[in-house]
Structure formats: structure tokens, C-alpha cells
Specification:
mainly alpha, 5 helices, 57% helix, globular
């Protein structure tokens, strides 16, 4: 039931063009801190991983994300202060 509600809400937010804006905002993180803290913790761990992996990277630099899928890695790169060019060659499946 919880998963059905989540998918329905995501679909509505995508249709009105708010899903990605909310996901990139501090509201998204604040919501998940209360709803499911593990999601926030995993995002922070992934961001820390990329910060250590691409040493010497400076905020404002450009990162190409080829095969971006849903953009999870692009989200981490944005958190590092990168300008991200994300490309997904496959058609979306929904």
C-alpha cells in the first residue's frame, strides 16, 4: 500500500513538472529524514564516495553522465557543485 501511494504521488509530481525540482530541494531531504532516514544516509554516502573518487574536482567543473538513467549519479554530482550534462540514450519505460 505504501509503495502504491509513493508511485502515485511521484507520477502526479512528474506530470505537473515538480518531481525533479522537489527531489533536488532541501524539502526532499527533510521529508526523508523523517519518513526513511536510510534514503538520506545512502545519498550522503554516495556523494562522499564521488567526492573521494574524483579528487581535484572543483565546484563549477563539468561532468558528463552518459547513460544517466533516472539521474541518481547526476544528483550526487550536483551535490558536489558540478555542472552536469546527463544523457540517456534509451527511451524511458513507465
Amino acid at each position: 500500500m505504501k509503495q502504491i501511494f509513493k508511485k502515485g504521488l511521484q507520477a502526479i509530481l512528474r506530470r505537473v513538472g515538480l518531481y525533479h525540482r522537489l527531489k533536488a530541494s532541501c524539502l526532499y531531504e527533510l521529508f526523508w529524514l523523517f519518513a526513511d532516514r536510510q534514503i538520506v544516509d545512502r545519498r550522503r554516502i554516495e556523494t562522499r564516495f564521488y567526492r573521494n573518487l574524483i579528487q581535484g574536482f572543483k565546484p563549477g567543473g563539468t561532468i558528463l553522465d552518459i547513460g544517466a538513467n533516472q539521474g541518481a549519479k547526476a544528483d550526487s554530482f550536483l551535490r558536489l557543485g558540478a555542472r552536469v550534462v546527463a544523457l540517456e540514450p534509451d527511451e524511458p519505460t513507465q
